[in-house]
Request: fold
Amino acid sequence: MNEITVLPPNVSKAEFARAIAEYRKILGNHNVIVDMERLAPYKKIMVPNPEQQHAPAGALIAESVEQVQAVLAVCSKYRIPVWPISTGKNFGYGTAAPAVPGQMVLDLKRMNKILEFDPVLGTVLLEPGVTYQQLQTYIDERNLPFWIAGPGAGSLVGPVGQSLERGIGYTPYGDHFAHSCGMEVVLASGEVLRTGSGGITNTKAWQSHKYGYGPVLDGLFSQSNFGIVTKLGLWLMPAPATYKPFLVAFANHEDIGKAVEITQQLRLKGVIQNTAVIGHALYALAWFARRADIYTEPGSVTDEWLTNFLKPKRLPVWGVNAALYGSEERVAADWKTVIEAFKDSGGMLLTQEQLGGDPAWEHGKGLMAGRLDMVEYGLYNWRGGGGSAWFAPVMQARGFEALKTMRLGKSILAEYGFDFMGGYMVNPRDMTLVIDLLFDRSNPAELQKAHECFGRLIREFGAQGYGVYRTNIAFMEQVADIYGPVKKIVNQRIKRALDPKGIIAPGKSGIRI
Ligand SMILES: Cc1cc2nc3c(=O)[nH]c(=O)nc-3n(C[C@H](O)[C@H](O)[C@H](O)COP(=O)(O)OP(=O)(O)OC[C@H]3O[C@@H](n4cnc5c(N)ncnc54)[C@H](O)[C@@H]3O)c2cc1C
Reply:
C-alpha cells in the first residue's frame, strides 16, 4: 500500500497514525483513505495552482450524523483539520480538494437519503450526498408535479453543495441558497444545531418557515467553515402549466449593453421569472468544438475573427436565454410584452419552433426547465489539458456595467492569450458575469500564466468595485481581502468562537482562526 506523505500541519507521524486508528474504529477500515491511489480523486484539481498546495492528508467517508460527530471529536483531540464535501464535484472551484494542504477530506456522499417530501408545500429534506439526478429520478418515478433547478454542471452534482456555495440554476428557483430552508449543522464542538424553527420539539415548519426566532443563522453556514451541514431543506418549483423558452439573438459584441438593459427590466417586472443567461457565442461554441480545429491564429480569439466565423452560419455573438412560465393566458400576455420590449433592439426573437434541434439551444431549453445534461463538459475539450477556473464578478444589472466588464475581462484575458468565454446571469437588480478561464494544466508555463491571469482579474475587477460571489481554493484569501478588513475580522471572531481549534476547513473563504 502506497501511504500518503502529506501530514496535517503540526501533527507528528505517530500522532497521525493514532488518529487514523481512531477514525478506523468509527468509520471502518475501508472508509479511512490514506492510500495514494484511492486518494487520487480527492487530490485532482482543475484550478490554476500546483496539486501539492491543496493535497489532502487523507479522506474520511462518513455515513451518519453520529459518525460526523465522532470524527470531529478525534479531529479536535489531535487538531487535525477536515474539509467537508457533499457530492464533491466542485469543478473549476476546487473539486474535492481543500484550500490549504494537510486536511482530511470529509466525504458525505454516502449520506444520500431524500428524508422527506411534502407534496402540498413542495419541500424536501435532503442529506448532503443527494445528487440532482437522484432528486430528478425521485420526482419522475412518482410523477410528481415539481421541477428541480440544477446548474450547468449537470446531474452528478448536488443541491446541498450548490445551496451552500450559493450557486446558480436557471429556473425561477435558480438562486439555490434562497430556495433552501432549514439546516442541520454539526458544530466543531460536536453539538447539532438546527436553524430556523428546527430546534423546536415537534416542529412541522422547519422546511417551510425560514427565520424562526432571533438572528437568522443559515447564512453563516454558506461559503463558510463554521460547521458541517448534515441536512438541508429545499423548496421545489411547482411544474408550470405552460413553459415557453425563447432566445434573443444579437449579432454584435457591443450589443450586450442593450441586451442587459431590456432583460433586466423584464426580470424586474416579473415577466421573465428565471435566471436569464446572456451567453457569449464562444462559450457555447466550445461545448462542441476543439479550439485547434477552428482557430489557428496566435493569442486569444479576437472579436473580429469570431464575427467572421459566426456570420455565414447565422449564429449570434450574444444570445439571451430566457423563458416564460405560468398559465396559458399569463404566458400569452407576457409573450406580447417580450415582443414589444425587444422590438427595436436589433435582437432577433426566436422561439422553440424556430430553434428546435439546435444542440446549444436544446441544452439551454432543458436547463431552464430544470432538466440536466452533460453538454457543458464539452468545454474541457476546447483547449484540453484539464485546467478550468470560474471567474464570477457581480455587478448592478445595467447595460453600461456589462459593456465595461466585458471590455475589462477581454483585455486582461487577451494579455495572457486566454479566451473570453462566459455570459451574464441576469437577475432583477444584479447580475453575475461568469467566465471560465480554460487552460492546459499539463503545461507548467500555461498553469503559471493562468494563475497570474486569475489573480489580475480579481485585482483589477476589485479595484473597479466588483467582487466575485464565489471563488476557487487557490484564491480564497485574495478575494476575502477585496471585501475589506472588518468583514475578515468579524469572520475570524465567529470562527474562534465556534471552532477555537480551527478544525473545520481552515482557509475556506479566507477564514482561519
Ligand atoms: C460544465 C460546468 C458547468 C457548471 N455550471 C455551473 C452553474 O451553472 N452554476 C453553478 O453554480 N456552478 C456551476 N459549475 C460549478 C460547480 O461544478 C458546481 O457548482 C457544483 O455543483 C459544485 O459541486 P457539488 O455540488 O458536488 O458541491 P461540493 O463539491 O460537495 O461542495 C462544494 C463546497 O461546498 C462546501 N461544502 C459542501 N458540502 C458541505 C457540507 N455538508 N458542510 C459544509 N460545507 C460544505 C465545501 O467547501 C465544498 O468544497 C459548473 C461546473 C462545470 C464543470
About this structure: Residues 444-463 form the longest helix (20 residues). The longest strand covers residues 430-440.
